[in-house]
Structures are given as structure tokens and as C-alpha cells.
Design goal:
Mean pLDDT: 96
CATH topology of the largest domain: Aspartate Aminotransferase, domain 2
Strand order of the largest sheet: 2-8-7-6-5-3-4
Radius of gyration: 20 Å
InterPro entries: Aminotrans_II_pyridoxalP_BS, Aminotransferase_I/II_large, HisP_aminotrans, PyrdxlP-dep_Trfase, PyrdxlP-dep_Trfase_major, PyrdxlP-dep_Trfase_small
Modified residues (N6-(pyridoxal phosphate)lysine): 211
Bound molecules: pyridoxal-5'-phosphate
Structural class: alpha/beta
Number of strands: 12
Largest sheet: 7 strands, mixed
Family: Belongs to the class-II pyridoxal-phosphate-dependent aminotransferase family. Histidinol-phosphate aminotransferase subfamily.
GO molecular function: histidinol-phosphate transaminase activity; pyridoxal phosphate binding
Number of domains: 2
EC number: 2.6.1.9
Amino acid sequence: MSRFWTDKIASLDPYVPGEQPQDKKYIKLNTNESPYSPSPKALEAMELEVSERLRLYPDPNCETLKEALAKSYQLNVNQVFVGNGSDEVLALAFMGYFAGGKPLAFADITYSFYKVYAGLYSIEPKLVPLSDDFDIIPADYENLDVSGVVITNPNAPTGKALPLSEIEAILKANPDVMVLVDEAYVDFGAQSAVSLINQYPNLLVVQTLSKSRALAGIRVGYALGHPDLIEGLERLKNSFNSYPIDRIALAGATAAVEDEAYLKEICDKTIATREQSVKDLESLGFNIIPSATNFVFVTHPGKDAEKIYLALKEQGILVRFFGSNKPRIGNYLRITIGTDEEMAALTAALKTL
Ligand SMILES: *Cc1c(COP(=O)(O)O)cnc(C)c1O
């Protein structure tokens, strides 16, 4: 607290990322990072950039990356926006499209950063409860008097995916506001809403290179949507920071997006490991929500999640525990899918408990 703080600073309730402890080497299954290295082509492109071009500003329009994304998703370049991680894309989208006075609809259990952005821009959240089985119910998004809708698909931290027809129902029910679909985990087995972009001018799809493309460290995310929505984001970005994507990130991200074979290879590996992990955890008595992501959300009917979390940490394995005070999910753990070896170590540690 400082006497120089404005009321705004004092009122904020900032996001708390998953712990990144430096005291020893953990098996990190707590922040949904990929256990695999990024595309070798991305590493090569970044090395070249470091050795030759860092004295120059990066391209403020990120043309090469936008072209690679447009090609990959069969869109036009003017339907692509890129930002410093999808968190920045979300922050700009909230500021530009949802800070209009009316409340913003999103699920009661979802990515906790939405509430933080809502606080930052003085947006009132309209929390729409998930069903008892943690499903998003499209009918609950009809006849809302809101500034917009945010759907995370697959949802986090539950891991559950919504079929495309249900996303479409939500778009149809909200033609006069923007519907943002956060697809951070879509490559691990859900249907993307990108195919609906040319039909629905109110749709903005947000994705990231942090999870499926194993590039959390370079901070690149993007939005796909109608050119007018994208232009709005560009206006905001160019009123705040012309160069949010540095040269290393731009080179690495472009090469990673072009390397579709590698993306498929590491996603397939994660999906196979996830299916095995589900079996192993079920045999230990855990209840597991069906996951279309690179994590599983689990609870044990006879054991306390916080105790499991602490005991695993003691054994050098980090998983995500959101707090026993969290409504509905206080006895759940979110476990990132690591390599086969890491998951075997997890199962072995859990057996000793
Ligand atoms: C990880 C995550 C993000 C943020 O990703 P970055 O691109 O690393 O900022 C956004 N939304 C959801 C749901 C996520 O899980």
C-alpha cells in the first residue's frame, strides 16, 4: 500500500499464477505446460533471430505470423490478431468489447483470470453456474442482458468440452454482443469454433501457443474473428504498445505454427498419456471428469485433496490445488499430463499415500 496508489490500484484483486518454486527440481504438473520441447524448427528460427537481428525493432504488425496462422486456419490475414500471450489478447478484448456497462456472462467455474480482468475494467461478472456434472448449459446463455459472453472450450479447470453445435446455439442466442471462445486447450481433442467465423460476425476465437505448441516461454497468443472485430483489437493494441511481440517470439511462433506435423505429434502423445493416466488414477479410486485437454480434474471420495497436494509436493511432484475454500471444487486437484515417465512417478507416489 502506498499513499500514491489510486483507488483503482487499491481495489484490484490480481491473478495468482500456479506456483513456480525454485527451491528444487519438481515434476511440474501444475501449470499445464507441455512436457515436450517446442518444434525444432521454432528453436532454429529463434537462434537465427538472436544471432543476427536483435538490434532492430520487430515487425509491429507481425505479418509473417499472421500469414502462417491465416494459412493454417484457412482465414484471411485481416481475420487474425496476435498478442503477448492469449492473456494479453483477452485483456484487450475485455477492455474493448465488454466494458460497456452491462454485466459479462461467464461460467461460475472457469479460468479465474476473467474475474480479474472484469475487476480491472470495472465489469460486473454475471456468473452462469455449470451443471452438477460441470457442464456448460447453452440454454442458460439465452435472454441475458449482457455486454458479452465468454466460453472456455474445453473448459478449465474442469477439462470438459462442449460440442460445436452448442457453441453455435450460444452464438445464435447472442447476436448483438461478442461471444469470446477461449480455446487454449482445443488441440487436445475438442472441436474448434474457427469453422463458424465466416458465419458469425460476433464470434472471437482465442488460442495460444503456450499449451499445445509447448511455447509458454515466448508468450504468444492470438484471436481469430471477423475483420471488424480484429480491427478493433488492433486499434487498442496500437494505442497501448506497438511492439508487444518481440523478434524472438515472432520468429519462433511463425515456425511453430507452420510445423503442423510436430503439433499433431506432441498432442497425440499427450492424449495417449492422458488416457493411460485416467485408467491409472481410476484404479486408485479417483473420480475423473472426462478431459479433452492436457490436464485432468480429479477428486477422491475418501481423501482430502489438500493433503494429497501437500504430500505430493513433499515428494517433489507439483499439482494444482485451488484452495479448500473454493465453492464446488474445494476437494479437487488439477493434474497436468506430463510424459509417460512423469505420470508413472505420480502414480507410484499416490500409491504410497
Ligand atoms: C493458459 C490459459 C490461457 C493463457 O495462455 P497464455 O497464452 O499463456 O497467456 C488463457 N486461457 C486459458 C483458459 C488458459 O488455460
